[in-house]
Amino acid sequence: MKEDGALGRDQLRKQAYPRSLSAYQREQEVVPGGSMRAASWFQPHPPYAARGEGCWVVDLDGRRLLDCANNFFSLIHGHAYEPVLDAVRTAMTLGTAFGMPTESEIILAETLAARTPRMEQTRFCNSGTEAVLAAIKGARGLTGRQRIAKFEGCYHGAYDWIEVSLDSNPGNWDDADGNPASVRCNAGTPDSVLQETVVLPYDDPQRCAEILKREGPTLAAVILDPHASRAGTVPMSRETAAVVQEACRRHGILLIADEVISYRLSYEGASPLFGLEPDLITTAKIIGGGLPIGAVSGLREHMAVFDHSKGKPRVSMGGTFSANPLSMAAGLVSLQHYSRDQVARLNQLGDKLRADLRAGFAKTGVAATVTGMGSLFRLHLGHETVTGYRSSYPTPDKARQIREIQLAMVQENVLLTPNCSGALSTPMGVKEVEQIAQTLVAVVAQVTGASS
Ligand code: PMP
Q1: Where are the alpha helices (DSSP H) in 94-200?
Q2: I need a surface site. Which of 41, 147, 168, 178 has the fewest CB within 10 A?
Q3: Which phi and psi (to 5°) does residue 66 adopt?
């Protein structure tokens, strides 16, 4: 779509959504950037949420949006899910936080262990970031090594080492040997952090094997998300997963599977789908039922690194609101209701969505593809096959069109994330999936100028 078209829409938004606009203007005075998260901001201003019901979110101006962002994929049962609300209400009346353990933390840890045998033991915290940083500290404590390896472009939260090469670009992503370079993401990240972080290519098992052969003996951990959203939202190949698993075994490296998003892919989580046997698993999002949560889980022998019961632990892990009873109660209900049947149903709906989108793009002659697995999906512009970070990296023109598509989707009452990815939630059915597919095909055709 032409630039003047986009401007026209922006002006329309300003006229049509005065409450969100005025909230944004107020927020700009007291919050840098005018919103708390870059990820939930977009031009000219984000819609402000007033309330949610099921798979719908209602904004301050009364618009009902079909929510495929689900608070960044954390609301597997959608908004204000009555069983979660009931559990939280009950827990609240007993008190919101204690400087003592509660039985609720045992029950949620037992629930994870029952679903996922490698989650023998768990420590809870309040976010995926915290879980990942604790897992890395745990791996360092267990191995006595300091360096880690991560995959290029992959997001694991806001922690210096795991933010390395999060947004490397074609101008800086190769080192002198043609391997992925360790690139600073934030201004001021120390050089030592770059030296301590080895970067692996998501879709090149041969090169991964070479890098891990060379760097393996110095590594405490390799962290991977086998269905990484920033690496194109494509499943990691079995080959790459096997290369990492084998290198970890050979060199005594801890394998950390970051399943903060991908845990939803099966009843047991993501790793078994890829033949992975991680030493530590990090989860968050859906295991908290919509309340703040994070968790590090693993086999007893590895989790012992956090054991404080015999004196100072090798690695300490705690926090004022860790394992708070509200998150525990919400998480328990969320997992109980994400049964094998529900996992299968949601994954089938995801398959249908991707099939409908592919058919729609083909029919309208739109140069676009959709990636994803289970209930997760992401739009890419162009016909190229997406296999990882580099092949999903958009040209400036495509990046602009993706932003336009996200905005146009909101105009059509469907909320996607800024990179046009989304997640299904259990209140959705065939009707909603068809609405998402039809709207997205029409919007992509409009924005890219293809005929419909
Ligand atoms: N790991 C992955 C794979 C994630 O996608 C995210 C957040 N989207 C995180 C870690 C960090 O989780 P949180 O935002 O809860 O800190």
Answers
A1: 103-115, 128-143, 191-195
A2: 178
A3: -75, 115
Helix or strand run (H / E) with residue 438:
helix 430-448
Structure tokens at 78: 């959608």
Proportion of the chain in helix, strand, coil states, percent, rounded to 5? 45, 15, 35
Q: Is-cis flag, bond preceding 44, omega within 30?
A: yes
Within the chain, which residues score under 70 in pLDDT? 1-15, 451-452
User: 157, 168 in Cβ contact below 8 A?
Assistant: no
Q: Is 233 left (phi over 0), alpha (psi -120 to 50) or beta?
A: left
Contacts of 347 (CB under 8 A, 6+ apart): 265, 266, 374, 375
> Ligand 1: distance of its center to the CA of 17 in Å?
30
Q: What is the pLDDT of residues 345-401, one digit of tens each?
A: 999 999 999 999 999 999 999 999 999 999 999 999 999 999 999 999 999 999 999
Strand partners, 219: 147
Minimum CA distance residue for ligand 1 atom 1: 156
**pLDDT tens digits for 58-73?**
999 999 999 999 999 9
Q: Is 275 left (phi over 0), alpha (psi -120 to 50) or beta?
A: left
Task: Go through the chain and tell me how many residues it has.
Answer: 452
Ligand 1 atom showing the smallest separation from residue 72 Cα: 8
pTM of the predicted model as reported, rounded to 2 decimal places: 0.96
Interval between CA 360 and ligand 1 midpoint (Å): 31
